[in-house]
Amino acid sequence: MIAQPRMDQVEQIRADFPILQRKIGNNRLAYLDNAATSQKPVAVLQTMDDYYRLHNANVHRGVHTLSEEATALYEGVRGKAARLINAPHERQIIFTRGTTEGINLVANTWGRANLGPGDEVLITEMEHHSNIVPWQMLQQQLGFTLRYIPITDEGLLDLSQLGNLLTERTKLLAFVHASNVLGTVNPVEQLVAAARAVGARVLVDGAQSVPHMPVDVQALDIDFLVFSSHKLCGPTGAGVLYGKRELLEEMPPFLGGGDMIREVRLTGSRWNSVPHKFEAGTPSIAEVIGMGAAFDYLQALGMAWVHKHEQMLTGYAYERLSQVEGLRILGPGPEQRGGLIAFTLGDIHPHDLSAALDSEGIAIRAGHHCAQPVHDHYDIAASARASFYLYNTVEEVDRLCDALVKAQEIFSL
Ligand code: C6P
Q1: Number of domains forming the structure of the chain
Q2: Range of the domain at 211
Q3: Which of 281, 300, 319 is the last residue of a domain?
Q4: In the annotation, is 370 catalytic?
């Protein structure tokens, strides 16, 4: 049984995040832009500070104490990542700079080796640009067909089309686990089963799911999973690509350079083993180590707890926002969404709305959130978005809703 989130527990969590003590003007910060990036607890800041103060050296290179310490700290994060997503082995964890790099890595290695004219890649209309553009770029070079699962007006994937879209020509089904605009949590098991039935591989964009809920790559039978450190309390510049072992072994390297090789001669080179084959050059050492501290922090709380807390906040926010006149929520009801709500309010431009909320200390995001096709579906250019995390409170949701009503009054004058 997962304990119900208690607000005194949330207060304790908030004390771990120094930035939450900040004021914006005269107002306490209400940080509701967590889907863009999360804030960082002292444990992460301290770990990175300690690394630079005490252990800084390049990894996998030196035979001296600092280099060995840095290597042990860096390599130790693979096991932590593997535990977070229940990967069978830590060698299946590849460090990247984030979700975007992870998808580009798969496109340029697995994609180049496996896709050509006559093949199809199936993605969805609700993808973030980072799961659209790499496939479009590759399509221009390799000549395969890129197809899209449409969305319904409710903001769910229209799976009635799946039988036509997913065929024996489909080599890859790549989709977002939780949409960064609609909030929709997609049915991974159903989609993986449909892909398996036609022999297609599956890539899951976990940028908005891994930070917020338990994700088990073995139970879900995922071939590739990508996510970013900075959305799960870790620093920017780090992330994870998980892949099935046989796929990673077969894939050619991504970038060429130091560390990804076993041997370099003027006549040619041989590659290092997985995962180092995919990690060319000096990596983001402090960032990966900081990401490890973020994994520890989240796992001490438990991902089920984080999920439950966000579900409570999202359910409450959905109910309160639904009562704001003229406010239109994009996407499904709270039971089918993760911890974010994008909306429009009358004809107030989302940027104006965000600026008005900022003057009350409330940070939300406004724009197309790097998901223009989703906005095209609703025939709007932009939306405002409030996104929650483990340290947000009911009181902050109340402040958001009150500030929206106030903004509406001001803009209607
Ligand atoms: N979405 C948002 O405000 P990077 O930038 O590589 O860490 O993550 C890219 C990415 C990929 N997929 C999804 C579903 C995402 O939400 C994001 C990042 C942020 O919605 C910044 S645009």
Answers
A1: 2
A2: 45-300
A3: 300
A4: yes
Q: Is 60 left (phi over 0), alpha (psi -120 to 50) or beta?
A: left
Q: Are 230 and 336 in the same domain?
A: no
Q: Against a cut of 0.85, is the pTM above it?
A: yes
Residue list, ligand 1 pocket, CB within 6 Å: 35-36, 98-100, 128, 130, 176, 180, 205, 207-208, 228, 365, 369-370
Residues 293 and 191 in one domain: yes
In the block, residue with structure tokens 């863009």: 36
Contacts of 43 by beta carbon, 8 Å cutoff, 6+ apart? 16, 293, 294, 296, 297
Q: Are strands 365-367 and 383-387 parallel, antiparallel or unpaired?
A: antiparallel
For residue range 275-334, list pLDDT tens digits in order.
999 999 999 999 999 999 999 999 999 999 999 999 999 999 999 999 999 999 999 999
The tens digit of pLDDT for each residue in 226-266 reads 999 999 999 999 999 999 999 999 999 999 999 999 999 99
Domain boundary among 300, 329, 350: 300
- The answer to whether residues 290 and 360 belong to one domain is no
- The rounded Cα 12 to chain-centroid distance in angstroms is 25
Q: How far is CA 123 from CA 135, 191, 201, in A?
A: 9, 11, 12
